[in-house]
C-alpha cells in the first residue's frame, strides 16, 4: 500500500493537473472577454452570481463531504444524497425566484432579477451529476474527474465568447454558465456510469447529517465570508468598481486560492482513509502543507511584483485600475493559505464543528474591517482583507498546534523551503521589473518570469535539494499510476 502521505500527494498531483488545465482555459477566456466586454458588464453579472454562489455552497447540505467520509454502505448513502440533492435543488430554485425582485431592488440594478431567475436553473441541473463527482473524489479518481472538470469549462468558454462576439453582452456570461452546468453533468455521468436511485435510507440520512450539519454550518459561514466584499462593493461603490474587483479577484483566486481548494478536494478523501491514525494524519498534513506553499509562495510574489504588466497583457488598458488591487490581494491570500489544509484533517477525523467555530470568528473580524475599508474604495477593501487574514491566521495556527499535534518547529520546517526560495525570488525580480519598465509588458513578464523561476527553483535546488527531488519523484509516480 502506498504510504498515506505519498498517496495524498498523488491525489493532489492529479487534482492539480485538472486545476492547471482548467484554469488555463479560464485565463485565456478571461483575456478574450475583458477585451470584448466593459467592467460594468462583469459587475452586473457578479451581482447576480454572488447570490447563486452563496446558495450553491449550501446546495448539498454538506452531504457530499459526508459521502466522501463514509466508509461503509456507500451505495445506500449515495442514493440518499442523490435524493436529498434533488429536493434541495428544487427548494433553492424556488427560493431564487422568490428573492430575485428584492435582490434587484437592493443592488439598484433591474436586470439582476431576470438574470437570477435564469441562473436558478443550475439548482435543478447540477444534482444530476453532483453525487457522481463526489464518488470520483471519494475513490481518489482525479484522473477521471479531469474530464468533466475540463470539459465543462471548454464548453463555457466557447459559448460565452461566441455570444459576446455576437453582442449578447452580460447574457453571454449567463448563458455560458448554464451551458457549463449541463455539460458538466453529462460528462460526469459518462465518465462514471454509476446507477443511483432517488431513495432515502432513514438510518443513512441520520448518520450523514450527523457529520454534515456542522459542516453545512461552516459552508454557510464560508459562503458569507467568500461573498461579503462583493455585496459591500456592489452596494457601496457600484457596478464598475465591482467589475474591476471581480476580475482582479478571479485572477488571484485562479492562481492562488484554487491551489488549496484543489488540495482540499484531494486531501480530504485521502485523509478520511486514515482518520484513526493520528501520526499518519500529522505526517500527511505537514507533507502537503510544504508542497502547497512551494507552489503558492512564488505565484503570490509573482503577482505582486508583476501586477502592472499582467493587467496590461491579460486584461487590457481599460482595466488599469485593477493594478493596485492585484498587488494587495495576493498578500491576504498568501497569509490565509498557511496551514489552511488543517481544515481537511478536522473533517477527516469527524470534527467539522471546529471549522464552523473558525468561520464564525472570521466573520466577526471581517465585517467591521470591511465596512471600514470600503470607505477608502477598492484599496481599502483589499487592506481590510489583509488585516483579517493576519488576525484569523494567528488563532488558526494555535488551533492547528493543539488539535493535530503539530509543533511550531515542525510547521516552520515545512514552510522553510518556500519562504527561502521566495526571499531570493523577491530580491532578484523586484529590481529587474523596475529596470526594464520601459520595455513592453510582454517582455517584462517574460523576463521577470524566467528570472523568478530560475532564482526560486535554483535556490530550492541549492538549499533544499531533498524537497525538490522528493516532490518531482512523487509527481512522476502519480502520473504513472
UniProtKB/TrEMBL annotation:
Keywords: Cell membrane, Membrane, Transmembrane, Transmembrane helix. GO terms for cellular component: plasma membrane. The chain crosses the membrane at residues 12-32, 44-68, 80-106, 174-192, 213-234, 254-272, 284-305, 325-346, 358-376, 382-405, 417-436, 442-463. Pfam families: Polysacc_synt_3. It is found in: Cell membrane. It is a multi-pass membrane protein. The keyword Hydrolase does not apply. Belongs to the polysaccharide synthase family. This is Polysaccharide biosynthesis protein.
